[in-house]
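Teaching soon. Invent one.


***
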Amino acid sequence: MSASVSDSTARGTEPVRPYRILVLGAGFGGLYTAVYLARYLRNHPNVWITVIDRRNYFLFTPMLHSTATGALEPRYIAHSVRKIFRKTRIHAHIGEVLGIDLENRSVSTVHRTMQFDELVLSLGSETNFYGMEARLENAFTLKSLKDAAAINNHLIRMFEKAYWEEDPQVRSAALTFVVVGGGPTGVELAGEIHEYANRELLRDFGRRIRKEEIRVILVEATRRILPSLPENLSDEALERLKKIGIEVFLEARLSGYRNHVMEIEGRLPVRTETLVWAAGVRTSPLISSLPLARDPQGRIKVKGTLESLSMDHVWVVGDNASCLNPYEGKPYPPTAQTAVRQAKVAAYNIAARILRKPEKIFSHHHIGGFVSIGNNYALLSAKQFTLSGILGWFLWNLVYIHKLPIIRYRLFSTFGLFLKVFFERATTEIDLCPEYEESSRNAAGSGSARE
């Protein structure tokens, strides 16, 4: 098929049918792959690029915790894919992917079945409960805008509940907030909840609620938080969390959360009405069902070019790819930084395949990471360079905001985040669709975690 495209292009005539590239997923990996493909193939209109996603927006997940605690408006981190693709040749197909037929090279959605010549898999990941779903009653997750809105609303309602509550045990459970998972998402969310509760909500409810009653707990099953950062920065982050008043339980394995009671092996139970599970992710079930070679985590094994090890013309980027780092001999971490860099190489190689050019091998050194810990404080690790405090926080925001795909939202986000240094955050509830709102309010629950 690549021969027909190249030959017809050279002759200046149109092929019998277009060469179709389907990109599944509009997250970091999928969206940037499509953008780079449009750039590399801009002089080849006979190549059709289609991005399929069940949502009509690209979600900037690194700043999702800011939306969950009133620091950013939801639409500042959710950008219309049609608006992003408006001035490109990329087609947006909004709909749930129902099935992938690799043998017949087709993808089925709720709307139609589409054929492909090249397929890019970037369907992201979902929350990994490690088999504990049945033991987590009404636990929150943080993977979507609905999750962020539900957490925001719940935090406000817990303060409303505690405001008039006379029973000390019920009051204490309402004002105890637990985050499970000591990775970047868990640490950042715990820091944001602490700042939101103590700096913003306490101002509104301070007549009847004292600061000493607010309790924020971070639970981590291993011996240290932030394992992706150098150990000295991990230790600094731990000290920072403790300094601002967050309790950190290390080597603490959660055994269950029922009836507003969190049980941890070897520790006394903790009564809380708020538990957010941020302890890990797993690959999409649709990816796990494909007949392709996978690693123990379910990610698809790829060649150095990011093409599937098992099947040609199937490319994998982001959370779905098991790609070995040639410098360290282990898979790259499933981060936004990795996904964006893989997207550029995958797009280049697909274009090279079509245009009969040499392909590239993906490799890069992880340049480091940012972690914010509330109260305008962040840690930065980039190669041999480290930075912490408010300067780290400013740089953390500037780097992330610069990566927002729409310039207007970069300006809005910059304005909103830096205003929070001097002014109060929003402490209003965010309206949700009725069915999600009802599940958020249901204290009894169905015995499983909310997603």
User: Anything to note?
Assistant: Residues 2-54+95-127+282-355 form a domain with the FAD/NAD(P)-binding domain fold (CATH 3.50.50.60). The chain has a mean pLDDT of 86. The chain has two domains: 2-54+95-127+282-355, 133-279+375-441.
